[in-house]
Amino acid sequence: MALRRRLLLLVVVVAAAVARCRADDPAVSMLLPGLPVAGLAVGFYNEKCPQAEDLVLAEMRTLVDKDETIGPALLRFMFHDCLVRGCDASIMLVSRNGTAERDAFPSYGLRGYAEIEHIKAKLEDACPLTVSCADIIVMAARDAVYLSNGPRYAVETGRRDGKVSAEYDADNDLPPPSSKIVDLKTYFSFKGLGWKDLVVLSGSHTIGRAQCATFASDRLYNYSGHVGQDPSLNKAYAAQLREMCEPGLADDTTMVEMDPRSPYTFDLSYYRNVRANRGLFTSDQALLDDPWTSAYVERMADAASPDEFFADYAAAITNMGRIEVLTGDNGEIRSACAAYVD
Fold first, then answer.
1. 118 a catalytic residue
2. Which positions does UniProt annotate for Ca(2+) 2 binding (predicted)?
3. pLDDT band at residue 24, thresholds of 50, 70 and 90?
4. DSSP 175
5. Which residues pair with 157 in a beta bridge?
6. How far apart (Å, rounded) are the C-alpha atoms in residues 85 and 81?
7. At 291, phi and psi to the nearest 5?
8. What is the distance, to the nearest Å, from the Cα of residue 141 to the centroid of all Cα atoms in its chain?
9. Which of 133, 140, 151, 180 is most open to solvent, judged by the fewest CB atoms within 10 Å of its CB?
């Protein structure tokens, strides 16, 4: 009920904004999120810790070589951090009472805590109390994309770490995989992101896996509260998924590749899957229900080269990396990321 009330409020706010500036016009919405943030800069650590980015990449390369699933997991980790209270590493904070972001339902199955802490320890050895956990999360996500044959884009750094982490915020700020297009655009608009950021960042689902519990109920067995399959889902693909995901098992932890064609290669096959009604989540299918996002899906599905997607992705994830950041004298630089909040 709290989430529903908040979404209703957001719809009203966004509707008012649309009436003023026609935010659904692509020429307008492209301009909304791209404003630079004071305190963030490419090469922020060049003088204080010049080896910082190379060290993160080296550690990420080692981690991915050992476990190819950890790259996509750390990309998801950035989403969970930045969409809740901004990119401030609040996802790393620990509550003894079980009320931190990591305790929230949307954080179920999230991986990357130990890996971010490991990279932080390496940076503390090299440059004590210099590189924030928030920046490590963003750099690790960039390198996860790069090590999956995606672009290695420039990353703005200079973030500081937050001191607050609340389960309530994660419950309300992270769009569930069952979201429809109106809800997705509302969530993203509330964070200062436009329709293009939404459709481009959804392309992150070109790598990684998801648990059956995150999609099977509404896509395979209980569509809109009725017994049966989501009619928009490709029937052959649904049959494959039903072989892996058990009906009636709410906590099914079976892992399914989000992009079966190339699950660990950052490419355009995600958009081809979505166009063919083979997107894993309702939120993937929803991209076909909006004229702007649908047109982008079509263009990427037909593209001979990923160059446009790669350039767009660098811009969109940079926009996300600017959400509600702490810089200057705000926040802190911790020696360890997993500090207690209570």
1. no
2. 206, 259, 267
3. very low
4. P
5. 41
6. 7
7. -65, -40
8. 9
9. 180
pTM: 0.89
Binding-site residue set: 81, 84, 86, 88, 90, 101, 175, 205-206, 259, 267
C-alpha–C-alpha distance, residues 154 and 285, integer Å = 30
**pLDDT exceeds cutoff 60 at 17:** no
The 3-state secondary structure of 130-171 reads: CCCHHHHHHHHHHHHHHCCCCCCCCCEECCEECCCCCHHHHH
- Burial tier of 47 (Cβ tally within 10 Å: 0-12, 13-18, 19+): exposed
In the set 44, 70, 80, 179, the catalytic residue is 80
How confident is the model over 278-308, as pLDDT tens digits?
999 999 999 999 999 999 999 999 999 999 9
Per-residue burial over 221-260, b if 16 or more Cβ lie within 10 Å, else e, is bbbeeeeebbeebbeebbeebbeebeeeeeebeeebbbbe
User: pLDDT per residue over 157-191, tens digit each?
Assistant: 999 999 999 999 999 999 999 999 999 999 999 99
- pLDDT of amino acid 228: 84
| All structural domains of the chain with their residue ranges | 41-208+258-321
Concatenating the DSSP letter of every residue in 9-39 gives HHHHHHHHHHHHH-TTSHHHHTTSS----TT
What class has domain 41-208+258-321?
Answer: mainly alpha
- Would you tell me the crossing angle of helices 70-82 and 113-126 to the nearest 10 degrees? 90
CA dist., res. 317 & res. 308, Å (int): 14
